[in-house]
């Protein structure tokens, strides 16, 4: 069985527009998923007073040209400092496109960072999810001499105060909450016969139960993070989003997070990254019988 050229990841000619389209679809799927505790969803603004669903969807669409440019660039340049710096330039331009689309609201900065690095790794030839995460980690760890000095981000303030790695640490560690937490939970829930919506909600809750989310830490400190992590663990212990007890615990957690103004935005971003990897037609998945080993090219 052969694949048409450019039809999927692992194929060096995988099309940039396919990667960009999949990244935007993943962002849309995360935004639309409901009910998500504390996050913007189809029901409303969650713990945010400056975001809603149309804004998140507009933000996702505004990032499409950036994802495409990231993929084109990663096909053109070999892994190294020049590629890292070019991705930094594109990422900062993407941040500005997001800000223009949202009136300066940070809707998807963490998602652009995670998905941008994964798109680059796949466009460069990563042939499976782990290779993509590993390639993204290698890119994240390279220095970018053009990072502008400026006001410290919320993530930076939290890093200084609590010593957590945040979005940068997650990428440098090869996205453990995507590869080891979200994707296995998503697939286990599907294998157990759960609906797609429930599988995605359980994957989100699994990430929330473990992630040191700088968005939560910035708004609620360590106490806020405990509320999010223990609350998500409790929903899963009650059976997850697909059981009556789990669903009512989820709605209680949502009520609590909105009351405390706590938003697990980093978990939302990492769910989008997991959905992106899950939506791609990896050769190892489609040709499992024929391919025993899928090697990392990068
Ligand atoms: C490396 C960068 C991502 C910058 O990171 P940094 O931590 O310095 O900057 P932040 O501006 O704080 O953005 C990081 C966002 O990452 C998400 N996140 C948080 N924790 C984690 C985690 N543990 N793992 C992964 N991801 C995480 C989180 O995103 C969500 O939160 C958003 C809202 O957060 P915030 O801005 O704090 O807003 P509010 O609380 O709403 O503010 P107020 O209303 O209270 O004022 C939410 O929308 C989610 O997106 C963090 O926000 C990266 O940007 C960078 O260096 N880029 C340079 C370009 C580049 O090199 N790109 C290459 C690839 S294209
Ligand atoms: N659904 C969502 N609500 C708020 N912030 C987010 N960041 C990423 N996804 C989000």
Automatic annotation (TrEMBL):
Q: What are its E.C. numbers?
A: 2.4.2.52
The cross-references to InterPro entries, in alphabetical order and at most eight, read:
CitG, TriPribosyl-deP-CoA_syn
- A Pfam family hit: CitG
Broad enzyme group: transferase
Q: Which UniProt keywords apply?
A: ATP-binding, Glycosyltransferase, Nucleotide-binding, Transferase
Q: Which domain of life is it from?
A: Bacteria
Q: Which Gene3D superfamilies match?
A: Triphosphoribosyl-dephospho-CoA protein (1.10.4200.10)
Give any GO molecular function from the UniProt entry.
glycosyltransferase activity
Catalytic activity, as annotated: 3'-dephospho-CoA + ATP = 2'-(5''-triphospho-alpha-D-ribosyl)-3'-dephospho-CoA + adenine
Quote the protein name from its UniProt record.
triphosphoribosyl-dephospho-CoA synthase
Q: Which classification does the entry list for the species?
A: Bacteria, Bacillati, Actinomycetota, Actinomycetes, Streptosporangiales
């Amino acid at each position: 069985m052969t694949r048409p050229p450019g039809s999927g990841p692992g194929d060096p000619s995988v099309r940039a527009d396919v990667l960009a389209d999949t990244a935007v679809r993943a962002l849309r799927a995360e935004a639309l998923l409901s009910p998500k505790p504390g996050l913007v969803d189809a029901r409303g603004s969650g713990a945010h007073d400056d975001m809603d669903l149309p804004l998140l969807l507009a933000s996702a669409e505004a990032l499409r040209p950036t994802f495409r440019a990231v993929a084109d660039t990663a096909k053109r340049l070999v892994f190294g400092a020049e590629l890292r710096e070019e991705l930094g330039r594109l990422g900062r331009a993407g941040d500005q496109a997001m800000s223009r689309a949202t009136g300066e609201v940070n809707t998807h900065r963490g998602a652009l960072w995670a998905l941008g690095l994964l798109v680059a790794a796949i466009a460069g030839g990563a042939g499976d999810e782990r290779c993509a995460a590993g390639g993204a980690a290698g890119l994240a760890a390279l220095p970018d001499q053009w990072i502008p000095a400026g006001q410290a981000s919320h993530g930076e303030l939290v890093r200084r105060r609590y010593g957590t790695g945040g979005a940068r640490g997650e990428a440098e560690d090869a996205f453990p909450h995507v590869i080891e937490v979200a994707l296995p939970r998503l697939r286990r829930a599907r294998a157990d016969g759960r609906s797609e919506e429930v599988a995605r909600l359980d994957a989100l809750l699994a990430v929330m139960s473990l992630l040191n989310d700088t968005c939560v830490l910035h708004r609620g400190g360590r106490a806020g993070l405990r509320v999010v992590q223990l609350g998500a663990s409790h929903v899963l212990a009650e059976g997850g989003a697909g059981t009556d007890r789990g669903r009512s615990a989820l709605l209680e957690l949502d009520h609590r997070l909105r009351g405390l103004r706590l938003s697990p935005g980093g978990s939302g971003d990492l769910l989008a990254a997991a959905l992106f990897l899950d939506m791609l037609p990896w050769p190892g998945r489609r040709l499992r019988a024929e391919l025993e080993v899928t090697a990392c090219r990068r």
